[in-house]
Amino acid sequence: MNCENESLIEIKDLKIGFKTPEKILHAVKGISLEVRKREIVGIVGESGCGKTVTALSIMRLLPDNTIVTGNINFSGINLLSLKEDETREIRGRDISMVFQDSLSSLNPLMKVGRQIDENLMIHTSLDNRDRLSEVLDIMDKVGLPDPEQTYEKYPHELSGGMRQRIAISIAIVCNPDLIIADEPTTALDVTVQAQILELLRKINRESNSSIVFISHNLGVIREVCSKVYVMYAGHIVERAPAETLFTNPGHPYTMGLIKALPKLESKGKELFDIRGRVPSIADLTQGCPFEPRCDYSFERCKKEFPDLKKIDSDHEVRCFLAGGIL
Amino acid sequence: MFVYLKKLFAMFLTVLLVLLITFVTFEIIPGNPALSRLGVDAQESQYEALAAELGLNDPLEIRLSRWLKGLFTGDLGISMRYSVPVSELILDRLPVTISLAVMALVLIVLIGIPLGIVSAKYGERLPGILITLISQIGMAIPSFWSGIILIYIFGIVLRWVSPGGFVPWSQDAYGAFKSLILPAVAIALPSIASIIRYTRNSIMDQMKNDYVQLALSKGLNLNSVLLRHVLKNALIPIITVLGMIAANILGGSIVIEQVFTLPGVGRLLINAITTRDLPLVQGMVLYIAFIIVVINFFIDIIYTVIDPRIRLVQRG
Predict the structure, then answer these.
(1) Does the model's ipTM exceed the 0.95 cut?
(2) What is the CATH number of the domain that holds A127?
(3) Taking CB atoms and an 8 Å limit, are B213 and A104 in contact across chains?
(4) Assuming Cys at both sites, which of A139, B123, B159, B212 could form a disulfide with A144, CB separation 3.0 to 4.6 Å?
């Protein structure tokens, strides 16, 4: 199967800014990334680094006061140049999204079955009976017990894990090429988290959907993704295969994230955290945005902004020291 | 079921309390029904006779228990002013008030809610701001003024409707409609304005929720998201306000009935108070308290129909 290497979505030099009365705040400052067919790609970073905004820009769901430039090439079309009704064709059918908190992302006053059904209503010409059996099928596939009964439930009557399964059903019912999962397990218990991750992997295996997995949790990312982009302050600071990222991280920020993961052998010791805080998107620095928090920073970091440097065939790092002493 | 029984009992207590307060208030305020009926020139003996006839000389607790006893047998007493049963007087006026209320509410719902949705859809853009501005003006205009303007335009200049008075429905349904449409519009206007604002604010609040993003991410267009997802979620505060408006109108639109010379409960209430006609006032208060309690009860039921989560809270 050589389609594995075919590109599904390619983002080039994406910039996202929010217009405010005084100035434009840049949330994403020129990122490029690629997702291939059947791939699970992770985007990791702290809150406010621009990962969710990036996801919403792919869906064209950002509010009116945003300025988005660059190119999002999705199987041959630039999503950013589509008209409103053309994006609606793609939303939910070719690209779909799973949000973080299923309690707030599902409509509290609509039966969950109907919320799944709605996708089919928009994008297929199936009649009521066919749609119902399709919905029940999907509910069964994502591991919801008693699909017929669950169909009639309201979101608040289900557990967090079951709700997230409903959200996933909504995302996959039209068999999309790309699923964007924005922190899909963050609001869940650890055991349920593992089940949902396994479910996403299964969907990826069985239905040929690519997945963009957004998380602040490197541990979760490592479990499901083959390739990872690390974002910091609106930039991609590192790209590497998931395993490489853990065994041989190239950016001081990535190293910090890995060190900050709680480990069994360091039980009882103080947890590591990266000093300082995430810069606000209103902060403007000339040099490397991570410089104020970086243990390795030197004069040049304050003045110059480093390029993404290739240190291996599939490993890029935005740091002057990458590939050298780090 | 138990929940509803509890509610019913609370409703009963509320009404009783309101009645007691009215009774006591009438003990305190100056004025006397016998005197107001006879006029200041009446002779002492005449006054004594009438006061005795009306039972005004009995002590407070006797009069109260007499009235309450009557109440439980469905007898609201005899009006001191009109010398006819209070219930008859109120029932006589109800068709006008209820017709007015229904027509005004229909206008409020059919105009206010859609305009509120449109205004919310356009948010801070021109149509939204325009609707907000107009509704602001609508709220600022008192209904007696818009009533007079309406009479002037449609009743006097255009002569489409008669400028006042009421024709019973049973006599001439079209005539009844024509005599009530202007006052209904006058009553509805300020409420339409406030329903527009409540609808707009409630919808715009709801638009911030994640479920709106999910609905959009399915490929729904904004109109469908608004109507299929947001509207129902936004409805609770709107229903609450609608209930208050309904109670208000059913309690009698004193000013509008005066302007359009309509025989509704509002004017009856004014007459009852100025002539110190305690049985009639008590009857009116009972009616108004009853209306409010019943409307609140229905609103509670509507809540549970709209939002399944409310049902759950009540059971627990």
Answers:
(1) no
(2) 3.40.50.300
(3) no
(4) A139
